[in-house]
Amino acid sequence: MKEFELINRYFTGRGVARRDVDLGIGDDCALVNVPEHCQLAITTDTLVEDVHFFSDIPPRALGHRVLAVNLSDLAAMGAEPTWVSLGLTLPNIDPNWLDEFTEGMHEIAEYFNVQIIGGDTTQGPLTITICAKGIVPKGKALTRSGAKVGDWVYVTGSLGDAGLAIESRKNGWQLDDEAFACALQRFHFPSPRVAAGQALRGIASSAIDISDGLLADLSHILRQSGVAAQINADMVPMSDALRNSVSVEQSLQLALAYGDDYELLFTVSEGSKLAMEAKLRQYGVEPVCIGQIQAGDGNIELLYENHPWPFPKTGFEHFS
Fold it and tell me: What is the pLDDT of residue 314?
């Protein structure tokens, strides 16, 4: 099988066909229509073997994961996902691997009504680049720069499970089968909070998705908003699998600093708290308040059981 045979077999005519796509796979560019009074949200992520995923990851899980982490960026902006371009670099063409990988991609794309409209395939070390696009009503996008003093800090779900899966693999931590399966599921099949992101439009003052760790991603909001935060570490939501598998200190390190959770971290004013909580519950999301925005210049004060708690680790950063 050669490049164009691969494209025709696994992508042309497969998956979602949106009405707003005039020309998809098969030409030099795709042609799409952006609705009137909307802005186009664009995000790009590259995932590299043995950096972002283990080499033995099931290909169906990898297909899901590479798309999910990009949809999470769109969710953090309150955007509706619409179109995706794929850059796929493969060491060789393995039809069985490609069957599973593309099935994983098409499954999550169909769930969120996203059409794969183009991309590129090359030969080399396994690397996958996704450029995801979405639409958001003009002026309604969530950003990192709107947090205000007095706003409350929330997350949409439990943190640390992906870190538990990674560390157990890397360091040989002995977990019981159920806990390991739970953690690995969260790492392989992240669930982007697309509906929650759209529900937060006009309510949240700032938002970001948790990819590099809660503290690291919160720092982005604080710096761009020109504020500080007080965070109650003991309020950070964690799964039973995490709590029952490692010590309290280890679980907090994974939940606060590891990342790969793809929950939303956002801020909301006192006057909007009740409306936000009610709206998110309509989508099955139980948001958890973990702290409050304060005056300052990007610093984070961590408390544990209402006492100051020193915590030196931040989050993942390439080239660090």
Answer: 56
pLDDT per position as a tens digit, 174-228: 889 999 999 999 999 999 999 999 999 999 999 999 999 999 999 999 999 999 9
Residue 120 assigned to a binding site: yes
Integer CA distances (angstroms), 219 to 16, 268, 305, in order: 37, 16, 22
Q: Where in the chain is the domain with CATH 3.90.650.10?
A: 152-308
Q: What is the value of pTM for the model shown?
A: 0.92
* Residue 73 assigned to a binding site: yes
3-137: CATH number: 3.30.1330.10
Taking a C-beta distance cutoff of 8 angstroms, is the pair 55, 46 a contact?
A: no
User: Looking at domain 152-308, which of 1.10.760.10, 3.30.365.10, 3.40.50.720, 3.90.650.10 is its CATH number?
Assistant: 3.90.650.10
State the Cα–Cα distance between residues 134 and 81, nearest whole angstrom: 4
- Name 221's Cβ contacts closer than 8 Å, sequence gap at least 6: 144, 145, 147, 206, 207, 208, 265, 267
Tell whether residue 28 is among the known ligand binding residues.
yes
**261 is an annotated ligand-binding site residue:** no
